[in-house]
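Researcher: Here's the sequence for the chain we discussed earlier.
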Amino acid sequence: MEKIEKAQFRYNGGRGALLCSGCKKIMKTGDEFTEEEIEAIKGYSIIPPVYCLKCQLVNALNAIGKDWAEKTEVRDDIKYKVISFEPPFPQEVMDIVTSKEVKVLGSLSPDGKQGIHVYFPM
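Model: Thanks. This is the structure I predict for it:
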């Protein structure tokens, strides 16, 4: 029997919550659901997995076989998950890192290689 990939829902204080299918972060709550999501949480239909930007980036990097590193960092009293990787940067990765929802910093490693660090608020 083949496993079906689908969006993940949970109840959050009596209200439904749509979770990231990667890290389980709450993406939406019941009052933000579309009709399709309401049908899915009730079990009447299935919708595809939903991923936050961090998990979209990790999935895109894994799909192209690129090495990456993850760490937690605090900057200006804000806690971030940081994903770091080196060039080249394919278009599907650049589409994610140019989102207004993330902070991107470039840097040079000690050996002179250019790198990119993408900050996702936690």
